[in-house]
Amino acid sequence: MIKFFLMVNKQGQTRLSRYYEHVEINKRAILEAEVIKNCLSRSKDECSFIEYKDFKLVYRQYAALFIVVGIDQTENEMAVYELIHNFVEVLDKYFSRVVSETLNLL
Q1: Torsion angles phi and psi, residue 45, rounded to 5
Q2: 5 closest CA partner among 74, 77, 57, 75
Q3: Inter-axis angle of helices 97-104 and 77-95, to 10 degrees?
Q4: 60 - beta bridge partners?
Q5: How far apart are CA 87 and CA 20, in angstroms?
Q6: Taking a C-beta distance cutoff of 8 angstroms, is the pair 62, 106 a contact?
Q7: Measured between alpha carbons, how far is 44 from 10 in angstroms, rounded to an integer?
């Protein structure tokens, strides 16, 4: 099950966050800061799956944008990784030029 969905820029600023389980506002800020730090500190050669506390992080980088999904231990990481890419493709179709430059960099 997906616990949260984040879109973050390279500066570590959250651009979009959606939580599918209740998390208190002050704990969200701490959680986001730790998750962002973990994902942004990794090199492109490292795996896009991270075990963090009681869940897993699956992230994907598109140019200056990171999309991070927090999932429970039973979820399939590869399926979520593909879900992220499909989400970006939908954004590209809907907004045409907003994300297309990001996809071309891959």
Answers
A1: -80, -15
A2: 57
A3: 130
A4: 67
A5: 17
A6: yes
A7: 13
3-state secondary structure at position 36: helix
Residue type, 58: V
Tokens of 22: 């209740």
| Tokens describing residue 67 | 């999309």
Side chain identity, residue 63 = A
Which tens digit of pLDDT belongs to each residue from 37-96?
998 898 888 999 999 988 999 999 888 889 999 999 999 999 999 999 999 888 888 877
pLDDT of 100 strictly over 70:
no
The per-residue pLDDT for 30 is: 93
Residue 96 tokens read as: 């045409």
Token pair of 37 as six digits = 């730090």
